[in-house]
Design goal:
138 residues; 3-stranded parallel β-sheet; 3 strands
Amino acid sequence: MKILADTCAWSFLLRRKKKTNLSLDEQLLVASLSEAIRDGQVAIIGPIRQEILSGIKDPAQFDQLKFALEAFQDEPLTTVHYKEAARLFNICRSRGVECGSTDILICAVAIQKRLSILTNDAGFKRCIEVLKAEGQML
């Protein structure tokens, strides 16, 4: 099954200088993303690409990272994804859980395209748990 990796997974893989300083959970995240890349089973969307590239001060590092990410084509997004993301956001909010706009868009894309989500972000995991409990996600 293809995975849709959250920005945090990409960040640990691409932007961290010393992988030895990662926690066990972070190391497992990096290993999972690395394996998915090797197997051609990783997906990305434009908003994740933007988040990965945002905040890089060094133009050379930005260009290097931008080039590395060119190996991955964006999953196309349509109005349907954004409407579904809004609906999912409302479900989470009604259960007292706030979700970021990119996180909930990831959920909408994952549901429609039957992708697994790779993240270790605690807030994002709460959103996923709510959606699973509501029968919206596998």
